[in-house]
Amino acid sequence: MRFPRLWSKTLGNVVFMGDHKKGGHFAAFEQPDLLANDLRKMFGIGGPAFGVVPGKSGYAK
Q1: Which of 17, 37, 51, 61 has the fewest CB atoms within 10 Å, counting from its CB?
Q2: Residue 59: predicted pLDDT
Q3: What is the distance of C-alpha 41 from the center of its chain?
Q4: Helices (H), ranges, 1-61
Q5: How far apart are CA 54 and CA 48, in angstroms?
Q6: Is there a contact between 27 and 35 (Cβ–Cβ < 8 Å)?
Q7: Tell me: the pLDDT tens digits for 13-57?
Q8: What is the DSSP string of 15-29?
Q9: How far apart are alpha carbons 61 and 54 in whole angstroms?
Q10: Is residue 29 one of the residues assigned to a domain?
Q11: Which residue segment(s) compose the domain that 35 sits in?
């Protein structure tokens, strides 16, 4: 389900949002590589969620 990005401001502290042309209701099943890449971007070095767990270095690859 797609919704306007402006709506994301009402969802709380959104730190990462991806937008893909492929994938539907079951996007993680239909396009697992896209989901995995988004997770790498989000938790990787320089990503918005890198180092969010105190005492842990995060995903470093």
Answers
A1: 61
A2: 63
A3: 7
A4: 27-30, 32-43
A5: 15
A6: yes
A7: 777 877 777 777 788 898 899 989 998 998 888 888 888 888 877
A8: ------SS--TTHHH
A9: 19
A10: yes
A11: 22-48
| Residue 4 covered by a domain | no
Query: Residue 43 CB: number of other CB atoms within 10 A?
Result: 19
Residues 30 and 21 sit within 8 Å (Cβ to Cβ): no
In a domain, 40, yes or no: yes
The answer to the question of residue 9 being in a domain is no
pTM of the model: 0.66
Largest interatomic CA distance in the chain: 37
Confidence label for 61 from pLDDT (cuts 50, 70 and 90)? low
How far is it, in rounded angstroms, from Cα 9 to Cα 14?
Answer: 8
Distance CA 21, CA 31 (A): 11
